[in-house]
Amino acid sequence: MSLSVLLRKFNFSFCQSSVQILSPVDSVFIPSCSAGTGIKGTTRNRYKYSRKRRGWKAQDGDYVTDGHAIATQRKPRWWPGANVIAGRRRTLTAVCCGTVRYTKEIWIPGKDTLAARTVKDLPKGALLYKTFVNVVPAREVGRFRLIKQV
After folding, report:
1. Can you tell me the mean pLDDT for 45-53?
2. Does the 55-137 domain belong in CATH 3.90.180.10?
């Protein structure tokens, strides 16, 4: 039986240069593949990353406690208003307990800023708006007893 018949019979698809016959008497052959041919595997080792989960965490009208993160952002989209501070990476955090309110306010840039130069290019009468996040403090309700009136 010839080598090509054996290859067709066992359905091998190797290069002829990669097949090595051990002895002419035995019909034993060892198929071997070079790096550029043959069956190849695929790798699934891709870089996987988790989402950053940026955006607002408390909507307009939600009740928040002090230290609660209201919004996380990459670029300044919302600005801190009353009872709100901007922490690391522009995270807006509530200073006191209360209700969240989003307001649009007219913004006037300072004289010697980059924004003031861009305002000059705008048409006359154009207004710039910024979204501010405010926390309206909750009314403190307590049980107090009058001990002594002065």
Report:
1. 76
2. no
